[in-house]
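## retry 2 of 3
previous attempt timed out at serialization; input unchanged, resubmitting
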Amino acid sequence: MAKLSLFDRRTRRVRTAIKARAGGKPRLSVHRSGRHIYAQVIDDAAGKTVASASTLDKDVGSKALGKTGATAEAAADVGKRVAEAATKAGVTKVVFDRGGFLFHGRVKALADAAREGGLEF
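## retry succeeded, writing output
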C-alpha cells in the first residue's frame, strides 16, 4: 500500500472519529479549494446528498469572491445557504466533517454561519 500524504491521513482520522460519534446523523462535509468552497449535507445511511451549496452557485455575489478566490465572507454565505437548504429538507442536527482542513479561516466561517442558520453540531 502506498504511503498516504499528511492531508489524506488527517482526512481519514477525522472521518473515522465522525463515524464513531455520528449516531446516524447526517454529516456536513466541507471541501475547500484554492478558489472555491463547497458544502454538502450527506446522509451516509442512504448514501444520498440531502443539501449542498458552493461558491459556484449562480446566486453568490461576485463581490464575495476576491481576486484570489473565495473569502471568509463567501464561505459564510455558503454556510447560511447550506443550512437553509438542509432545514428545508428536514435536517437540523448534523456532525461537522472538516475533512483534512484545519478549523480556522474559511472553514470556521462556514461552520459558524451554518450554526447561525439553524444547524446544530
